[in-house]
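in:
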């Protein structure tokens, strides 16, 4: 069974870069045709897809976030990461990583505050 676990700081200051890592076990991020995504949910709002990285390293981003979002991977560690630059308090959310077949991490709360 595929398991995903988000990790990273829970508090980020405005204008800084938010960095999160998703560690995958029980499956490989290079499995053919697999997609690995980042999704967030601000308080009181719905889920927002942020972007994804494909099995071959191709990345996809939400148009509304593309200018300050970057997704990368470390195949040796079976991890993929999210970087969100120039954050504001509006980026406060629970951040989830997700894989194929609706596998999700448990989510990690990130608060943007000075």
């Amino acid at each position: 069974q595929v398991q995903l676990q988000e990790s990273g700081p829970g508090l980020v200051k405005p204008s800084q870069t938010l960095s999160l890592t998703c560690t995958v076990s029980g499956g490989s991020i290079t499995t053919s045709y697999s997609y690995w995504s980042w999704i967030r949910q601000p308080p009181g709002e719905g889920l927002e897809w942020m972007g994804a990285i494909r099995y071959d390293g191709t990345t996809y981003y939400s148009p509304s976030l593309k200018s300050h979002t970057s997704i990368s991977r470390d195949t040796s560690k079976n991890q993929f990461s999210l970087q969100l630059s120039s954050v504001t308090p509006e980026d406060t959310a629970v951040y989830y990583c997700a894989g194929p077949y609706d596998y999700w991490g448990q989510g990690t709360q990130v608060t943007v505050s000075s």
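note: The chain has a mean pLDDT of 97.
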